[in-house]
Design goal:
about 180 residues
Length: about 180
């Protein structure tokens, strides 16, 4: 069941950017696949993160008609770097995840452009401009999406909601005891 959820999330992350380009052109700079890769790397699941990064990178390369394997390699390297940091530093708050998402976008773009230049591929946009747009857009979208997921859909959020009900019941019980 978990693999099916991961596959659906990846398909959505790969398919949505093309629809976003039609809605508003600057949304094309948001790298949803990278956000999914960073999420799994932050969960300290290296095998899932690396497999997702490789598969999603190859799929996005095939759809973009770019250099096949460059995005897959850059996402795998980024997933490993994020996992390496997450395994040594506790990154459980949103504030600490902002620089991680920004660094992941930076690493991913640097490796991708480096691979393309190494193999003689030309880019359609100046490097610094593309890097800054992707860095800003992916950092903002990644921070928001990771925060929303952690707040509403994660196991921690489910546990907090359960304890909220218990706290309310306990407070009501204490209020009754104080009145007596």
């Amino acid at each position: 069941m978990r693999q099916l959820k991961i596959a659906i999330v990846l398909l959505v992350a790969i398919a949505v950017p093309s629809a976003l380009r039609a809605v508003w052109a600057p949304l094309a700079y948001v790298d949803l696949v990278l956000i999914v890769v960073v999420y799994f790397a932050l969960q300290r699941e290296p095998l899932y993160a690396l497999l997702i990064a490789a598969g999603a990178g190859l799929a996005s390369d095939a759809l973009s008609r770019g250099l096949l394997g460059a995005s897959g390699f850059s996402k795998v390297l980024t997933a490993y770097a994020v996992y390496f940091v997450a395994s040594r530093v506790m990154l459980d708050t949103t504030v600490l995840r902002i620089p991680v998402v920004a660094a992941a976008a930076l690493i991913d773009n640097l490796v991708y452009v480096g691979m393309n230049r190494l193999l003689g591929q030309k880019s359609s946009m100046p490097f610094v401009q593309a890097l800054s747009y992707k860095l800003i857009a992916t950092t903002i979208a990644g921070t928001v999406l990771l925060y929303v997921y952690e707040t509403y859909f994660s196991d921690k959020a489910r546990q907090r909601r359960q304890f909220t009900v218990r706290r309310r019941v306990a407070r009501r019980g204490l209020g009754i005891l104080k009145r007596r």
